[in-house]
Amino acid sequence: MTQLHFKKEADKLEHITCTLRLVTNYRQLNKAAKRPLHPFSSGNRSVKTAWFVKLDVVHGYFQVSLDESNSMLTAFLLPSGKCRHTVAPMSLNSSSDEFIIRTDQAIAGLDW
């Protein structure tokens, strides 16, 4: 079971209202998790590039499903009972690794 808390975030548009975001503490799980290896493009390739693209993928981690055994590792307690993530939580290191791998696969082979 992991610790959690809610983080107050100011609304980026209005600065008047705020939203609460569930934040889970996966420090111990991050220490034990095996992270996938994924190569980074060489700097030489980037220097010779004529086009640069910036993508803002809203809710990208929520597109990465967890299988049941990995989902059980993300369990946390709420006053209403035990919960777990069924999609990649933002505070888990391997979530960003997997998201980057999937994004690279999606754009691989595009003729820029």
Give the uncertain stretches in residue-range form.
none
CA gyration radius, whole angstroms: 18 Å
Shape verdict: globular
Number of domains: 1
- Structural class, please? alpha+beta
Rounded mean pLDDT score: 81
Total E-strand runs: 4
Share of β-strand residues: 15-25%
So how many helices? 4
Oligomeric grouping of the chains: single chain
Main β-sheet, spatial strand arrangement: 1-2
* Percent helix range: 25-40%
The ordered H/E elements are EEHHHEEH
Distance between the termini: 45 Å
Largest sheet: 2 strands, antiparallel
Protein name: Reverse transcriptase domain-containing protein
GO biological process, one term: DNA biosynthetic process
Organism: Tigriopus californicus
InterPro entries: DNA/RNA_pol_sf, Rev_trsase/Diguanyl_cyclase
What does the secondary structure layout of this molecule look like, with pairings?
Blueprint: E1 3-10, E2 18-25, H1 27-32, H2 43-47, H3 68-72, E3 76-78, E4 81-83, H4 93-107
Antiparallel strand pairs: 1-2, 3-4
Overview of the structural elements:
This is Reverse transcriptase domain-containing protein. InterPro entries: DNA/RNA_pol_sf, Rev_trsase/Diguanyl_cyclase. This protein is an alpha+beta fold. The protein has one domain (3-35, 49-107). 28% of the residues lie in helices and 20% in strands. It contains 4 helices and 4 strands. The chain has helices at residues 27-32, 43-47, 68-72, 93-107, and strands at residues 3-10, 18-25, 76-78, 81-83. The strands form 2 sheets. The chain has a two-stranded antiparallel sheet. Strand 1 and strand 2 (18-25) form a beta hairpin.
